[in-house]
Amino acid sequence: MEPMAGGWMSAAHSMGTTILAVEYDEGVILGADSRTTTGVYVANRASDKITQLTDNVYICRSGSAADTQVVSDYVRYFLNQHTIQLGKEATVKTAANLVKELAYQNKSFLQAGMIVAGWDKYDGGSVYGIPLGGTLLRLPFSSGGSGSSYLYGFLDQAWRPNMSKDEAERFVVKSIALAIARDGASGGVVRTVTVNAHGVERNFFAGDKLPLFHEEISPGRNPLLA
Amino acid sequence: MSSIGTGYDLSVTTFSPDGRVFQIEYANKAIDNSGTIVGIKCKDGVVLGVEKLIPSKMLLEGSNRRIHAVHKHAGMAVAGLAADGRQIVGRARSEASQYLSFYGEDIPIKELCDRVAHYVHLCTLYWWLRPFGSAAILGGYDRDGPQLYMIEPSGVAYRYFGAAVGKGRQAAKTAIEKLKLSEMTCREGIIAVAKIIYEVHDEAKDKAFELELSWVCDESNKQHQRVPADLLEEAKVAAKAAKDALDEDEGMDAD
């Protein structure tokens, strides 16, 4: 990637990103890094790429920040109306279908790779991957963003069904940390969101809480907090 | 019991001084003159039945069906003007199919009913349209269990345990009220509906009729389907026997 001399000030915000969502025994855990870039400049080093669609459904966003924000806003609006009319909470499948409709019907305008995950009483925890062209695929786990390339082998080997919450969260954090170690467009902190029958829990893992793997410099003391 | 709405009945966009829209009331007359249709909600599903009057011996048996599949989990029986009924069923099918495409799930029956009712009502708002001369009884099974709704030409729709429209609706409703629906399964319901249809059929005024029955219940895997041939036969036999017994009794009374 060539550094764009001066061009980074006007380049579109992109989320290089690593995003991940996994099913575990009681629900789902969504995880993401926090780096948003314009070219090589890190526009936001602590962004939140996991966005709420309803009380029980969340979405991981990768690709163009603007595109995924707009898609999320539309889907949140539709789901809000749908919930009122339906008289009960929307299902993860419905949320994922709405995201898919927007992604597929507008495929020539959008650059958005998203993962919809959540919990509902009919299907329990569900994860739906919606990559660039607007495919909809339900999977036990799904990853996305530039950092996900480095995770395919690891995820295939390390994922197991029916993990406990702690196991699953460690799995998610380790995966994102591995991707951050290798992908320049991913970095910052790791955010996780756990959704199950009891509700939603957000978690945050600062740089110094992440495992190191190979030849990385230890984060050390944060000079801003001195 | 009809009053003439002289002058106030020429357009569906005109109210009478006592707040009635006569065109809609006249639309109901079209249904009152059609063959009876009946729907009941049993404890495990919904049964729909139609007294399909056969105006000519030339008609092939099983043609001009009055019960239509709307979606996997829902069906509709229509009374009144057949062509109007076809439009309503077509609209219901579109709504169900588009909902599935957009939301990824089967349309809840309540929602389907609301959509159809909205459409029927729409046609009562403009002077250049006429109201539908058909009523539809919608039976379906979704996550909230089996449900029965009826949509009238005015666009009003209610949820029912038992509903009937058409020529024999008074007698049919009386008969339905006598049934213990909450304790009945659809298997028993089929027999009950067949008996009611045979009972309300007036042999003096209308010659031949064909019984159409459909159900959506646990036994049919929550899918709407025509009642299987063997059960249909069983129902017809039982209904004929009941009707004959009734006629005999009446014959004796006449003596």
Automatic annotation (TrEMBL), chain A:
Q: What single Pfam family name could you report for this chain, choosing any that match? A: Proteasome
Name the catalysed reactions.
Cleavage of peptide bonds with very broad specificity
UniProt cross-references to InterPro entries, sorted A to Z: Ntn_hydrolases_N (IPR029055), Pept_T1A_subB (IPR000243), Proteasome_bsu_CS (IPR016050), Proteasome_sua/b (IPR001353), Proteasome_suB-type (IPR023333)
Keywords carried by this UniProt record: Cytoplasm, Hydrolase, Nucleus, Protease, Proteasome, Threonine protease
CDD domains assigned: proteasome_beta_type_6 (cd03762)
Is the Glycosyltransferase keyword given for this protein?
A: no
Domain of life where this protein originates: Eukaryota
Q: Where in the cell is it found?
A: Cytoplasm; Nucleus
Q: What is its main location?
A: cytoplasm
The cross-references to Gene3D superfamilies, in alphabetical order and at most eight, read: Glutamine Phosphoribosylpyrophosphate, subunit 1, domain 1 (3.60.20.10)
Give the record's subunit note: Component of the proteasome complex.
| Function noted in UniProt | Component of the proteasome, a multicatalytic proteinase complex which is characterized by its ability to cleave peptides with Arg, Phe, Tyr, Leu, and Glu adjacent to the leaving group at neutral or slightly basic pH. The proteasome has an ATP-dependent proteolytic activity. The proteasome is a multicatalytic proteinase complex which is characterized by its ability to cleave peptides with Arg, Phe, Tyr, Leu, and Glu adjacent to the leaving group at neutral or slightly basic pH. The proteasome has an ATP-dependent proteolytic activity.
The entry assigns this protein to a family as follows:
Belongs to the peptidase T1B family.
Tell me what this protein is called: Proteasome subunit beta
Name the species this protein comes from.
Sphagnum troendelagicum
Automatic annotation (TrEMBL), chain B:
| Record's keyword terms, sorted | Cytoplasm, Nucleus, Proteasome
In what residue span(s) does the Proteasome alpha-type subunits domain sit?
8-30
Query: Where does the record say this protein resides?
Result: Cytoplasm; Nucleus
Q: Note the InterPro entries from the entry.
A: Ntn_hydrolases_N (IPR029055), Proteasome_alpha (IPR050115), Proteasome_alpha-type (IPR023332), Proteasome_asu_N (IPR000426), Proteasome_sua/b (IPR001353)
Oligomeric and partner information: The 20S proteasome core is composed of 28 subunits that are arranged in four stacked rings, resulting in a barrel-shaped structure. The two end rings are each formed by seven alpha subunits, and the two central rings are each formed by seven beta subunits.
Q: Which PANTHER family match?
A: PROTEASOME SUBUNIT ALPHA/BETA
Entry function: The proteasome is a multicatalytic proteinase complex which is characterized by its ability to cleave peptides with Arg, Phe, Tyr, Leu, and Glu adjacent to the leaving group at neutral or slightly basic pH.
Q: Family assignment?
A: Belongs to the peptidase T1A family.
Q: What is the official name of this protein in its record? A: Proteasome subunit alpha type
